[in-house]
Every structure is written in structure tokens, then in C-alpha cells.
Amino acid sequence: MTKDSSELGKKGENFAENYLKSKKYRIIERNFRRPWGELDIIARAPDGTLVFVEVKTMQEGELKPEDQMSASKMRKFKRTASLYAGHHQNLIHDAKGWRLDVIALTKIENSFVVHHYENVG
What we know:
The chain contains two helices and five strands; from the N terminus they run αβββαββ.
């Protein structure tokens, strides 16, 4: 990953966090990293569901960011979320459980176009 793409990714994650907060999500943790995987954002949805969010950010004119979520990346995302959930049972409300979301951001000039895909796993 180049410095520019790393900076764009960080800006995208910051934007995604603010987007989720504007939708009344409560951020629990960011950038959970372990040798087996990483979770960009862990949040509580307004309905109480624990949500694991993968943020994909790209510049306008490149592929769509959501196209970067390959089958192998999805399996790794799912496995990492499952391991996290298993070790943090106190964060899971029995009635709501947990889900996987993808926030795809396309940077156009100085703003982002947001596509929020809920329950992708």
C-alpha cells in the first residue's frame, strides 16, 4: 500500500466513523488488529446490534470500492468478526446478535460518496 492510498484509507475510515455517528451508531473500537485479521470499525447500531464494519475507499475513476471485497477478504472479515464476538460476548444483545457491514467510499474532489451495505455476511 502506498503512502497516498494509506492516507486515503485513513481519511475514509475517519469519514465512515463520522457517518456512522450521524446515523446514531456508537463506536466501540477502531482498527482492531490481530495476526489473523483486522476490523476497521466496531460499533453498536441504534437498534442494539453489534456491527463490524469494513471500510473500502477509492478515488473517483478507479474501480468501485465495494468491488475490492473479494471472497477471500470476506471470509477473513467474517472469521475475524466471529473471533472478536466470541471473546466479547458481553457486547452482544441476544435478541439482536451481530452483523457485518461494508461502507464503500468514493472520493470525488473534497468529499465522499457513501454506499453503506448492511448485513453482507
